Amino acid sequence: MPWKETSTMDERVRFIGDLESCLYTMTELCERYGISRKTGYKWAERYVAEGVDGLKERSRAPKRCPHRMAKRIARALVELRMRYPHWGPRKLLTVLGRRQPDWSLPAASTVGALLKRQGLVQARRRRHRPSPAAAAPRWRVGAPNDLWTSDFKGQFLTGDHRYCYPLTIADRYSRYLLGCESLPSTRLCEVRPVFERVFRDQGLPSAILTDNGSPFASQAICRLSRLSVWWIKLGIQPLLIQPGHPEQNGSHERMHRTLKAHTARPPAASLQAQQKRFVAFRQEFNQERPHEALGQRPPGELYRASRRPYPERLEAMEYPGHYEARSVRSDGSIKFHGQMIFLSQALQSERVGLVEIDDGIWSVYFGPMLLGRLEHGSAQIVG
């Protein structure tokens, strides 16, 4: 014979039936049904007041929530999200708090739940976090223009099937996006005018951090390129991350992810149209978008132009009187004590200085940069 299955509702109906039969006391019935006397009296009172419907399970949801979001706040947050579809709850709350300082705003988690209910949140693929790498080149960053960072965002095809190479330049201290240009290639003739324009507008930084790709670096001595040689002549220290470790320029890479989401999904119809998107993005990123690392302030509140103006004319490198100066030939070599010594074609037409530091051992400099050591009788520089 199969077991009889009973529901909680059936048990409560049977309990009331046994109670009305007056064959059992309340204490006996509660022991028989495995409930407390308090629960037994509760169901009896509900039955008297409401009949069988009183035995049904009631909702345990609170009748009122003192922290429920006001409709006007929810409406304002949704409108902000529609205008800035890539901003998260904290950024939305920061901007709304500035606009409505008298409003009592909810927690970021509450806003996140609102956006999800409104269908304004897309699930993101979990990103792989690389294992910790060696530290990037150390450079003290305590004010704007102490260190700039630069890189190319990965190239992509615009609607007219032309490649776009976005060149970006940012200030590490303030996260201010100094330049974002859609270029047709990574050649020096395309890149240098962008830096010239930024230098004229914002002045010169103390150093610039980049990866090891062209035109920032090469396979030559000290990884010098024509671009980095120009920077050194301007008094800018070129710094390179370790090859294969983009996380050493993490703040710039994070900005690139935001840039791609805002401007290149999908790409614009042409390079000119893509550049219009970049200009709009720079304005929003620098002046409107709160930045978590800056205490939810936009970068424009912290950045100030450099006090070092861009010189329109550069003089040849000068060295102390005890140095021996040499001009680099078109093939990248110098003649020193009767020998031809190859340096780098990136240094052609530039002046280098050599100083003897020990008997027959010379240090070779380009401006403040030590290129390597040269031993007497050797035609090769050792790093």
Q: β content, as a range?
A: 15-25%
The CATH C-level class name of the largest domain:
Alpha Beta
Integer count of domains: 4
Q: Tell me the number of helical segments per DSSP (H or I, 4 or more residues long).
A: 10
- Taking pLDDT < 50 over at least 5 consecutive residues as the criterion, the unreliable ranges are none
CATH architecture verdict of the largest domain? 2-Layer Sandwich
Number of strand elements? 12
Structural class: alpha+beta
CATH superfamily of the largest domain: Ribonuclease H-like superfamily/Ribonuclease H
Biggest β-sheet: count, sense, barrel?
A: 6 strands, mixed
Q: Name the helicity range.
A: 25-40%
Describe the global form: elongated
Q: Give the C-alpha Rg.
A: 35 Å
Average pLDDT for all residues: 89
Distance between the termini: 92 Å
CATH topology name of the largest domain: Nucleotidyltransferase, domain 5
What is the H-and-E element order?
Answer: HHHHHHEEEEHEHEHHEEEEEE
Summarize this entry quickly.
This protein has about 375 residues and is α+β, with helices and mostly antiparallel strands. Helices cover about 30% and strands about 15% of the residues.
